[in-house]
Amino acid sequence: ALAVSAAPAAADPSVTTTTDIGLGDVIPVPAEVTPDPDADYRLGPGTLIRTEPRSDEVRAIGHQLADALRPATGYPLPVVPARGNGGGISLLLDDVGDELGPEGYRLDVTKRGVTIRANEPAGLFAGTQTLRQLLPAAIESDTPQHKTWTVPGGGIVDHPRFSYRSAMLDIARHFHTLDEIKSYIDEIARYKINHLHIHLTDDQGWRIEIESWPELATVGGGPGTGVDGVGGGYLTKDDYRDIVSYAAERYITVVPEIDMPGHTNSALSTYAELNCDGIAPPPRTDIEVGYSSLCIDKEITYEFVDDVIREIAELTPGPYLHIGGDEAWSTPPEDYRTFMQRVVPIVEKYGKRPLGWNEIVRGTPSTDTIAQYWGTTTEHEEIADAVARGHKVIMSPADKAYIDMKYDENTPLGLSWAGYIEVRDAYDWDPGDHVSGVGEDAVLGVEAPLWSETLRTLDHIEYMAFPRLAAIAELGWSPRDTHDWTSFSERLSKQGPRWEARGVDFYRSPQVPWG
Ligand code: TNX
């Protein structure tokens, strides 16, 4: 009898259950939410996950959902083809309207079950992330919890404001391992981030294997590289492929960055022939910027760049390749233009769309090149002019979206050159109306860059990213008219127990009513 009473109650649709989670208690907040308090659904040991019979991809999403819900519920949650109109959790491809696009979805909760419908699998994946947040926080536990697994009743119609929602990880200043990168991918996917920009190279380290220049990784990324000489390591091509496919399973596109012509000391110190004077400078482990440059007048520079871009493009199924271009203070303006005019076509030759930090618009005539705005002003003539010429922009203003900035003067990690960024600062701005002349139509989306000069471990990454990454994710996904700090901070407080249960070392901002 004891064992029976301790076991989770069987699902009985006639039993009225309650939940303290509202249907809109989700980050990013959904576009439209219509609660129905009489329609809560309760998962039980007999719940089936029923997936679109025509699609292996949707079945895989069903299996991911089952894997996510099994540990805490202890339920078997078999994944079966959806036929007829049974209850349980259903993931269906359906025409839900062009306005919902490839990532939008409808989620309907009735007493009989949860049905997610979308035009494309990406929308079903997004819907399953919403569903996970609608279950009690105990769902994040990795051991069975004796809970009533209730999903609040009603309907959600949801789709993103911007198609590009990104997080950047700097693995050059300190290398972060394959497992750490995957763990970060798991977290960002929950908030409907759909791009992971990996900053692969910088003055302090080269973190990706290049077969035609093998010492870039083994020497330029070897032991003793990284800030303070702590943080050596590099990704093999297989590691990188592993990341690309792990991210793809979570509907995240990897955007690799090879930063040039500045931020290149690790390459210059590894291969003497890349230097104008033929002499390799010593490796650097400090955090100064702006002192290194590839040699603009040497042909071997372009052979090197061609080799590297070719190998990276081959490894990268996504459409974008980021070539940095920031802080090239040791490259005279005329040389910078010469360099970009040769290098942008190399990226295009290998079938990729070039992306660069906002300085790149000075160097390239190709308006296909996407500029990533990292300035700290809301007036910026150069970027406004570039938009007028036809460039698209990704917004990551350093004083709002740089999640390597300290929260306040007491933050033990991070930098502060762009100011302190508390959670509310990260949330209270509008990517579609932030810089004069850079309107909604010019903005592809947002990114939260995480530079890692001061970050060594996954705990460090988590502490800086959460909760601010959730703020940037909401700016990228949710309609502007849902923007509301009080609502956001309350919804954020409900992420706290989830992060705790997952062992995510987040920052307990005093601005958030954690409870
Ligand atoms: C500026 S932003 C940089 C990086 C640093 C970062 C630190 C940008 C395009 N370049 O090299 O890591 O500041 O916050």
From TrEMBL:
Name a GO molecular-function annotation: beta-N-acetylhexosaminidase activity
The answer to whether UniProt assigns keyword Signal to this entry is yes
What is an annotated GO biological process for this record, any one? carbohydrate metabolic process
EC assignment: the record states 3.2.1.52
Question: Active site at which residues?
Answer: E327
Q: Where is the Beta-hexosaminidase bacterial type N-terminal domain?
A: 25-159
Highest rank taxon of the organism:
Bacteria
Catalysed reactions listed for this entry: Hydrolysis of terminal non-reducing N-acetyl-D-hexosamine residues in N-acetyl-beta-D-hexosaminides
- GO cellular component term, pick one: membrane
Q: Which UniProt keywords apply?
A: Glycosidase, Hydrolase, Signal
Supply the Pfam families for this chain: Glyco_hydro_20 (PF00728), Glyco_hydro_20b (PF02838)
Q: Is Hydrolase set as a keyword in this record?
A: yes
Give start and end of each Glycoside hydrolase family 20 catalytic domain. Answer: 162-330, 337-479
Write down the PANTHER family for this protein, in alphabetical order: BETA-HEXOSAMINIDASE (PTHR22600), BETA-N-ACETYLHEXOSAMINIDASE (PTHR22600:SF57)
Query: What family does the database annotate?
Result: Belongs to the glycosyl hydrolase 20 family.
- This one is known as beta-N-acetylhexosaminidase
Origin organism lineage = Bacteria, Bacillati, Actinomycetota, Actinomycetes, Pseudonocardiales
